[in-house]
Automatic annotation (TrEMBL):
Organism: Oreochromis aureus
SUPFAM superfamilies linked to this entry: Cysteine proteinases
Keyword Mitochondrion: no
Signal peptide range in chain numbering: none
Any GO CC annotation of this UniProt entry: nucleolus
Residue ranges constituting the Ubiquitin-like protease family profile domain according to the UniProt record: 61-218
Keyword tags: Hydrolase, Nucleus, Protease, Thiol protease, Ubl conjugation pathway
Name of the protein described by the UniProt record: Ubiquitin-like protease family profile domain-containing protein
Amino acid sequence: MTTSSVLEFLESFYIKYGSFIPLSESDVREHLKKESKCDLSNRSAQTEFDFTCFMVTYNKHTLRLEDLGTLEEQNWLNDQIINMYGELIMEATEHKVHFFNSFFHKQLVAKGYDGVKRWTKKVDLFSKWLLLIPIHLEIHWSLVTVTMATKTISYYDSQGIVFRHTTDNIMKYLQSEAREKKQTAFQKGWKITIIKGIPQQKNDSDCGVFVLEYCRCLSVKQPLLFSQDDMPRIRKRIYKELCDRRLND
């Protein structure tokens, strides 16, 4: 049994279902058992194929099956999913939108501006029309956006929770960045708004999916017209987009 035959099986599964949901490791083992006519129930027989070798790579991002598995059912999305999807958003908008790594805000809080100023060494934030900043506070995802044309910092939350300190942190960061990059026009005049009347989750597991869908819609200037009922479909679409390494039209 060769690695290529397993990859062919994975590809055929993907073509049939549009994603690897609901593929499980046991499905692949069953396929191997049929093809090789050997018992794969013991560890010694499993060495011919390492399941950890399957991955999706894009720029500096790598997703393994365990990462993609966070998109199944009602699992919580992990940072790898959030960050690679953000990369796809930037590519789709020809980098007119900047998506911050999900660890950015945590690093900003822990170490202040000096701890993150190198993150934008090669990026002119003030030339972007929109900044997307995912906020991960323990077990909940929310979103802060920045519209440069109006100097507006907006807060989106799928449970209606307001963590005001996050927008204050971003405003102070932008003022420091403006001073560092000698952008006088952006050193003052910022305003903060809490966005209400947006799609809300009805469980405790879809906040990450809501954040990514907020990001996707806002980045292409589409209205937020999805709901909790759309979550299974959106999870599968995100899965496929990540595997395809591009956003679907």
